[in-house]
Amino acid sequence: MSIQTDEMKSLENLSGKSGVTIMKDLQQVFPDLGNLATKLHKEIYERDVLDLKQQEIITLSILIAQGNTESALKFHINAALHAGLTKEEIFEIILHAAPYTGFPRAIDAVYAAHEIFIENGLVK
User: Fold this and answer.
1) Could you count the other beta carbons within 10 Å of the beta carbon of residue 93?
2) pLDDT surpassing 70 at residue 1
């Protein structure tokens, strides 16, 4: 079973080529989970009630609160940048979450964000 083309296009619209690469890698490791994740992303992120920036703000907030979500957090930080959030806005989301989620989770999120910012040429 492989990921369908329209699902991959949807995923690329969400997170760019790096998101497609991540999902293809997941599909190689565990095809059933890769296919399910891609289908769910398409179903959730193509709804038209919230725009993509709003959806990513919610997703980042949830992932920060959960903790121990580094790979998903990095994926969605990249998706948030792709959706138009700035580096400063992403850091502000993390700062705002800190008193509610705890500083260790916020610090982990800062380091995950910093790594994605470097990959995207936003930090030297």
Assistant:
1) 21
2) no
